[in-house]
Design goal:
Radius of gyration of chain B: 17 Å
Helix content of chain B: 25-40%
Structural class of chain B: alpha+beta
Shape of chain A: globular
Strand content of chain A: 5-15%
Number of domains of chain A: 3
CATH class of the largest domain in chain A: Alpha Beta
Strand content of chain B: 15-25%
Shape of chain B: globular
CATH topology of the largest domain in chain B: Alpha-Beta Plaits
CATH architecture of the largest domain in chain B: 2-Layer Sandwich
Structural class of chain A: alpha/beta
Order of helices and strands of chain B: EHHEEHEEHEEHEH
Oligomer: heterodimer
Chain lengths: ~625, ~160
């Protein structure tokens, strides 16, 4: 990790975070493999796969495009194979995001009918959205919520020929025009997934350009359902984020309490568990087991969701342990009793580490199963109150097996501010975006960079993301972070107002005046939808298209398929989108050229591929300058 | 002197060795970079009735390619035993005499640059990149005596088990 300068562990440097390196050392001594060591054993990796020119669809394959064979057995070119593989990756992302939204819509429906422990938290937002959706506002909040859930469920399911109403309601007019001209206004996301999967069966759609447009269409459908839709429903149900302070890193683990980790993306079970741990019955149960109390920590995006909701979950949430790459290292503290795994990003490697300690892994989502894990308490909205108690009891019972001599907690931790959203920013600015936009116009803030998405070992855990964030703020670019990138920034103290000292003079002055950090915590990866809402609001306030704004997106350590959908959505939205590591498209000259050059003429956005974080930031800064010139500021 | 030996039963035809070879001989030194630079691998994996067969220069004791090279670019290094047409006093002129002379087809033309290219055992690398990259252990870097002895032991063992 030549560009990593964030920690002193030179000899054992896998991560930008010292606590993770310490736990890695511990696991090395125990002879337990982790992502880091398994990654090394997988080297070298197949170049055909890395370039996207391997097709495994039919039993004539696998076919690879080599100097000797420029076509697959069926005649498919490198362009076809790469574009088809890209659609399939995007489909996975779209499907997973839809699952998240569907769980929420069903939960809101059950809540509206009084069958869950949740309550509609943001009635104002519910009424605002219900109004836009054309519902009769002369009803109770629960009646409206019930109907809105139906609207969302029918949006998810409607035909691909029927335009997505959520897009019609929430997208900027200028974007709709661009997408209409390209023929990529999607219908219901489930139908879009069906179409995309059908198209990518061997020998149905082999036109690389049509396949690329399918990727764009699928990503836009995901943007307005799985991203914007999910964020909106989560706010209605659990509350819109408000500014609040929390803590992050492994040093927050309390050796004297029963410790539960909420890991994944969907914060529903975790919210019920946070309610359950407050009950006298559970506290008594924990004390009888010899514990001081019960604490719930977050890992990955579920943690981010819990952290940012002041009114519901943040008050008794104990902080963020880390992100995707450190999930095995959380358990290595020996002080984690229960990991509740929801939806995606629970790696099988976690089980191998859990087996070396007393830790119990439990799936809390019907779609998640893990080899060797026997406890599955699948979320059912109507039963979640009881399920939460069952989970807490399981954690306490597991705590009894904890070997205290094996507990080793690194002493690193940082405070972090969370809860940024369009609403909380407006609140901080006195109800209008103008004070922020004035600073942009004056040049104190040169632009805004969304540094989002996963974390990836290929570049060194969080090191590229942190380097890019630091470089941006140094150059007076305000950073908005979401997803695993948020965790990384929290741990390294970038989400504190004091981090303004690392910013350039202009941004520093703005941050000091407002008392905000230079890297704003926008929460989880699904909150990329919230960034979309923010960019839409800024474009609206200035009366321009998103593609004209001095705004860039960077997913410097992208890992999985949801991120592909996010990235293509950002490009479709008109943003220069830096993606690292290099996505598996370089084997197709056509796809590479379309994504990195030609698409700019169509959507205003394009993919920037640059592995060097400093060079990447330089190019994004140049883009911001170009856009400022375009706006005459 | 160590040579690259092949345990043909173990080769699955994944072509990783060809990619690692190209990466080692590229300016970027990584696989994707080498593919984009279109660097030609110096090891081949041929298919015979679907069975993958890796082939590379044997760095012969009496190399016919060296004899055939009229310009004197192809030389066998006395110390390392590496047969190569690179970094010697004379430069390859692309006459392809070596290609004709090699009994194994281990030398390939690089038509763009007009020079013959062949395995150079990664020119001083402790273990050649192809061997290091092989996931199945089909490529082995040992001296001839060790390889022959291992083969003898294996055969003897198989004979005992069969009786």
């Amino acid at each position: 990790m030549s560009d990593c300068k964030t920690c002193p562990s030179v000899d054992n440097c896998y991560s930008a975070h010292e606590a993770v390196n310490q736990m890695q050392e511990r696991l090395d001594e125990m002879g337990v493999d982790t992502v880091f060591t398994r990654y090394e054993k997988q080297q070298p990796q197949c170049g055909f796969g890395m370039q996207g020119i391997c097709c495994q669809l039919c039993s004539h394959g696998p076919c690879r495009i080599t100097p000797k064979a420029s076509k697959g057995i069926c005649g498919a070119s490198a362009d076809t194979i790469v574009a088809r593989n890209l659609v399939r990756l995007t489909t996975h992302g779209a499907a997973a995001y839809s699952h998240h939204l569907e769980e929420l819509a069903k939960t809101i429906k059950a809540t509206a009918n009084g069958k869950t422990p949740y309550k509609i938290q943001d009635e104002a937002k519910l009424r605002e959205i219900a109004k836009v959706a054309g519902l009769d506002l002369n009803q109770t909040a629960n009646e409206l919520a019930d109907q809105l859930a139906d609207v969302i469920l029918s949006e998810l399911r409607k035909d691909s020929e029927e335009p997505l109403a959520l897009l019609e309601l929430f997208a900027p007019e200028s974007r709709k025009k661009v997408w209409r001209e390209l023929g990529v206004i999607p219908g219901g996301v489930h139908s879009e997934i069906r179409d995309a999967l059908t198209k990518t069966m061997s020998n149905i759609n082999t036109d690389p350009i049509d396949l690329l447009l399918t990727t764009v269409r699928l990503s836009i459908a995901t943007g307005y359902t799985g991203l914007v839709g999910t964020v909106t429903l989560q706010d209605i149900l659990l509350g819109t984020p408000e500014l609040t302070e929390s803590e992050a890193d492994l040093g927050i683990v309390d050796p004297d309490t029963v410790n539960i980790v909420a890991h994944g993306h969907v914060p529903l079970v975790a919210t019920a568990v946070l309610q359950a741990v407050e009950s006298d019955e559970m506290i008594k149960y924990a004390k009888e087991a010899g514990a001081k109390g019960i604490k719930v920590y977050g890992s990955m995006c579920t943690g981010q969701e819990l952290m940012q909701r002041k009114g519901t979950t943040a008050s008794n949430y104990s902080g963020q342990l880390g992100n995707w790459l450190s999930q095995e290292h959380h358990i290595a503290t020996g002080a984690v009793d229960l990991v509740m795994m929801d939806m995606n990003c629970s790696i099988p490697g976690m089980k191998s580490v859990a087996d070396k300690f007393h830790t119990k892994l439990v799936s809390v989502d019907r779609i998640l199963r893990m080899e060797g894990v026997k406890d599955n308490i699948d979320y059912v909205p109507e039963k979640v109150e009881e399920q939460a108690k069952e989970l807490v009891k399981l954690a306490v019972d597991t705590y009894k097996n904890r070997d205290k001599s094996k507990v080793q907690i690194p002493d690193h931790k940082s405070a972090a501010v969370a809860g940024f959203s369009v609403e909380s920013i407006l609140g901080a600015l006195g109800g209008s975006l103008d004070p922020l936009l004035d600073e942009v116009k004056k040049g104190n803030i040169k632009g805004i960079a969304a540094v989002v998405g996963c974390t990836n070992n290929r570049n060194g855990h969080d090191s590229k993301g942190l380097t890019i964030m630091k470089e941006f703020i140094k150059n007076d670019v305000l950073v908005i972070a979401a997803g695993c990138m948020s965790s990384g920034a929290e741990i390294e103290g970038l989400m504190l107002p004091s981090a303004a000292d690392q910013a350039g003079d202009g941004l520093k002055a703005v941050c000091k005046a407002l008392g905000v950090p230079p890297v704003l915590n926008f929460g989880s990866c699904v909150d990329i939808g919230r960034i979309g809402v923010a960019v839409t609001a800024i474009a609206g306030a200035l009366g321009v298209d998103p593609s004209q704004l001095p705004v860039v997106a960077s997913a410097p350590e992208y890992l999985e398929q949801k991120a592909i959908a996010d990235g293509v959505f950002a490009v479709s939205f008109g943003l220069l989108t830096h993606i690292g590591p290099v996505p598996p498209v370089t084997g197709s000259p056509l796809v590479t050229k379309v994504l990195t050059e030609d698409i700019e003429g169509l959507t205003g956005g394009k993919v920037l591929v640059e592995e060097d974080p400093l060079k990447a930031t330089e190019k994004m800064l140049a883009h911001i300058d170009k856009k400022r010139q375009g706006l005459g500021i | 002197m160590k040579q690259i030996f092949v345990d043909i039963d173990k080769c699955t035809g994944c072509l990783t060795c060809t990619l690692a070879c190209a990466a080692e001989h590229s300016s970027s030194k990584d696989i994707v970079g080498a593919m984009l630079e279109k660097v030609q691998p110096r090891i081949s994996v041929e298919a015979v009735n679907g069975k993958a067969v890796p082939l590379m220069c044997r760095h012969c004791e009496e190399p016919t390619c060296v004899d055939a090279c009229m310009i004197g670019a192809m030389q066998k290094d006395k110390e390392t035993g590496i047969v190569s047409n690179e970094n010697n006093d004379q430069s390859c002129i692309g006459c392809w005499m070596c290609i004709m002379a090699c009994p194994y087809g281990a030398i390939q033309p690089n038509e763009e640059e007009g020079i013959a290219i062949k395995c150079d055992k990664c020119n001083g690398r402790e273990v050649p990149a192809c061997v290091e990259s092989c996931h199945t252990g089909a490529l082995i870097y040992v001296d001839g005596k060790t390889f022959a002895q291992e083969k003898l032991t294996k055969t003897a063992k198989a004979l005992t088990e069969a009786s």
